[in-house]
Design brief:
With 213 residues, the chain is of the alpha/beta class. It is built from ten helices and six strands, in the order βαβαβαβαβαβααααα.
């Protein structure tokens, strides 16, 4: 069972998310909070696997709260839900350590998919969010890029497909290799390129012309 906490300063939104998740046999809302400080206090008492976090909250906002969660409870995953889809907000949340980012107008199916994928160790960004990240990175493509690292052809294939939003299972099917092999390549790429997460891999791929065929 995936134990979820919801942090949002609007009770109506919390109730809406709970209604979307209600009846799901693998996801359960076990805690809720109206600001970051209240959430951190709750996490000391209630075991949680994943947080659905609002960006704009009083006392302590979602960005600062995410940083604190990652420091104090590194195993807890964080998905941001917000109406803010600007590139600046997205980049701030990625730097804070968010595992996913979806807009508040998302439906039940995407919400469930995001939770499941993040709990499987992947990152999840809604299509609109991904487009804005890519637009921002494309705008920086001609700026000074990090020194190119020598990659094998297979590593380039995996990196390109990651940048095209394919999951590890989809990459495995497309390249006719095992899921475990894809995960090994992904971890090796993160280490070799000295980035922290999938967002870092995407950024490197775009800046160095490796995101497309």
């Amino acid at each position: 069972m995936i134990k979820v906490a919801i942090a949002d300063d609007h009770q109506m939104f919390i109730d809406g998310i709970k209604s979307l998740i209600k009846g799901n046999k693998t996801i359960q809302v076990v805690a809720e909070a109206n600001n970051g400080e209240a959430l951190l206090e709750t996490l000391t008492k209630t075991p949680v696997n994943l947080i659905l976090m609002d960006v704009n909250m009083p006392v302590m906002d979602g960005i600062e709260t995410t940083k604190k969660v990652k420091e104090l409870f590194p195993d807890i995953k964080v998905i941001m839900l917000t109406m803010f889809g600007t590139r600046d907000y997205i980049e701030k949340l990625l730097r804070a350590g968010a595992n996913g980012y979806i807009l508040k107008n998302t439906g039940k199916e995407e919400l469930t998919t995001a939770i499941e994928k993040v709990m499987q160790g992947e990152s999840y960004f809604s299509k609109e969010v991904t487009e804005r990240i890519m637009e921002g990175l494309q705008g920086k493509k001609n700026e000074t890029n990090p020194m190119m690292v020598e990659l094998t052809e297979r590593e380039k294939d995996v990196l390109r497909l990651i940048a095209q939003e394919l999951t590890s299972h989809e990459i495995a099917d497309k390249l006719f290799i095992s899921f475990h092999t894809v995960e090994t390549h992904r971890k090796n790429l993160i280490s070799k390129l000295q980035v922290k997460n999938i967002a870092g891999l995407v950024k490197y791929a775009v800046q160095n012309g490796l995101a497309t065929d």
